[in-house]
Amino acid sequence: MQSKISVIGAGNVGASCALYLAEDGLGDVVLTDIVEGLPQGKALDILQSGSPRGKDMSIIGTNDYKDIAGSDLVIVTAGLARKPGMDRLDLLKKNADICGGIAEEIKTHAPDSIVIVVSNPIDVMVFHTMKVTGFPSERVIGQAGVLDSSRCNAFVAMELGCAVTDVQAMVLGGHGDTMVPLPRYTTVSGVPITELIPKDRIDAISERTQKGGGEIVSLLKTGSAYYAPAASSVKMAASIIQDTHHVLPCSAYLTGEYGLEDVYVGVPCQLGRKGLEKIIELELTEDERKALHSSAAVYKESLADLGY
């Protein structure tokens, strides 16, 4: 039986997710948005791309959350970008209202689904979504480290002139300036980059990775990244839908792992048909552990602002 995947939010990230999901044939795709005509138009456009791309796709657009009923997986991309004059707390609360409303709809219409949250700030919104839905934490996961690692992969490949598909980066922590790149666990065909790249260049790559989203915002001037965030979300979706048990860095709910509790933060996760199957605990140096705990503390503060 074909899987059903719903994407909430038909902006650039959501529409790109829908395109990649449909092209990869991962299931029947439902693109949902509150703006009348937007998801319908983008879904129809994606469907019409099937012939020249040689892809037999299944996708619809809708403004009615009832159409997500029976979804195996829901990807939440909806949310606001910060506007002039809006401070961090304003943005946090507005996106919490948006994600909370979506979480209620998921709870009502797709109570058995697994949820991937992409909306920013991811590590806070995924916690909020888990609480509002009441779903077990294994079924509510944040997309963060996959994107951050993909950026690091690209920068390492650019540095070495090698195939980006040969690079496997590991980035922990929150999705933002507090992320924790781990060069010791970043390899090129199994060889640690510490054996291939001088320390000063590794430090530069780590810093560029931490600021990767901001770099794109600065270049675009009127928006933010969407191709890589969407591709990263679909990589997670594929592991879940196809039950491949891939180990990917995702924002997961910690209950003592890495010495952290009651917070979502990026760690290596094994994903399969039931969602989060296992959190893998890496051996960290004291400095790496402190950096991870500092990253988690930032999100604890934001959760307190939301009353958690």
Largest sheet: 6 strands, parallel
Helix content: 40-55%
Query: Strand-and-helix sequence, N→C?
Result: EHEHHEEHEHEHEEEEEHHHEEEH
Strand content: 15-25%
Low-confidence stretches: none
In the CATH hierarchy, the third-tier topology of the largest domain is known as: L-2-Hydroxyisocaproate Dehydrogenase, Chain A, domain 2
Distance, first to last CA: 40 Å
* Number of helices in the DSSP assignment: 10
Based on the structure, what is the oligomeric state of the protein chains? single chain
Order of neighbouring strands in the sheet with most strands: 3-2-1-4-5-6
How many domains, in number, for the residues? 2
Helix-and-strand structural type? alpha/beta
Shape designation: globular
* Radius of gyration, taken over Cα atoms and rounded to an integer in Å: 19 Å
Secondary-structure arrangement, i.e. CATH architecture of the largest domain = Alpha-Beta Complex
Number of strands: 14
CATH superfamily of the largest domain, called what? Answer: Lactate dehydrogenase/glycoside hydrolase, family 4, C-terminal
Mean of residue pLDDT values: 94
What is the CATH class designation of the largest domain? Alpha Beta
What does this protein look like?
With about 300 residues, this protein is an alpha/beta fold. It folds into 2 domains: about 5-140, Rossmann fold; about 145-305, L-2-Hydroxyisocaproate Dehydrogenase, Chain A, domain 2. It contains 10 helices and 14 strands. It has a 6-stranded parallel sheet with strand order 3-2-1-4-5-6, sandwiched between helices. A hairpin with a 7-residue loop joins strand 8 and strand 9 (about 180). Helix 5 crosses helix 10. The longest helix is centred in the first third of the chain and has 22 residues, at about 90-110. The chain is globular. The relative contact order is 0.13. The mean pLDDT is about 95.
